[in-house]
Design a protein that fits this description.
The protein has about 220 residues and is α/β, with parallel strands linked by helices. The protein has a single domain, classed as Purple Acid Phosphatase, chain A, domain 2 (4-Layer Sandwich), CATH 3.60.21.10. It is about 20% helix and about 25% strand. The strands form four sheets. Strands 5-6-9-12-14-13 form a six-stranded mixed beta sheet, with no helix packed on it. The model has no long low-confidence stretch (mean pLDDT about 95).
Length: about 220
């Protein structure tokens, strides 16, 4: 199965170069921008129109903190799934024998959608089935493609430690996420592995901090043989 993983397109999806021969496309959130769900709605509708017409048989969407119109119900599950897009919010689907699980939650930062305190977010990760093959979350686990520069100019790893613990226990074949963009010389977009794990970690973020309006990555293609 050949998977194309993208994330954090922030309304710039039309700039992406769509690869050939893809079986499943995964978007792991932040298709849009605005906090105001009413302004966000038109962005999400444009994204759905683009996503639905991709020449790829299976399409999966897991929302991100910016996708407020989905959270508030202005963009309904019925609208998304009517366009042959699978929406995963703490739920799974099996495709050709591979078990996918999607969850939109990230540690709380501001007043965005699908956020939980770091002390309680583990309850969401406990829902991830032990036999998950492909895990899709909006945010990264701690210390994996999650580096950033804070507003005080200090270097920080801002992924979720509770998510890392659960991923280590589940050991999926692939973990897709975004949320943390590349910034300056820090390149988070891409894939990596960790010693002792079979998991391929994929940060599909297509945006760089400080470079709004353009895509700086065209996602990751992963072939799960």
């Amino acid at each position: 199965m050949k998977i194309w993983h993208v994330s954090d397109t922030h309304s710039n999806q039309g700039q992406l170069q769509v690869p050939d021969g893809i079986d499943v496309v995964i978007h792991s959130g932040d298709a849009s921008n605005y906090l105001d769900p009413y302004r966000n709605e038109s962005e999400m509708r444009a994204f759905i129109d683009w996503f639905a017409t991709l020449p790829i048989p299976r399409k999966i969407f897991v929302p991100g903190n910016h996708d407020t119109s989905v959270d508030k119900g202005l963009i309904s599950r019925e609208l998304i799934e009517h366009r042959k897009i699978t929406l995963l919010i703490d739920e799974g689907i099996e495709i050709d024998g591979l078990k996918f699980w999607g969850s939109p939650w990230t540690p709380k930062y501001g007043t965005w959608s699908w956020m939980k305190d770091r002390g309680t977010i583990n309850r969401k990760w406990d829902l991830i089935p032990d036999d998950t093959d492909v895990l899709i979350t909006h945010g990264p686990p701690l210390s994996i493609l999650d580096a950033t520069i804070r507003r005080d100019n200090e270097y920080d790893l801002c992924g979720c430690s509770a998510l890392l613990k659960r991923v280590v226990n589940v050991n999926p074949r692939l973990h897709c996420f975004g949320h943390i963009h590349s910034t300056g010389d820090i390149r988070n977009a891409g894939t990596r592995t960790m010693h002792g794990m079979r998991t391929i970690f994929s940060n599909g973020a297509c945006a760089d901090d400080g470079k709004w309006g353009v895509v700086t990555s065209h996602g990751n293609v992963i072939d799960l043989l």
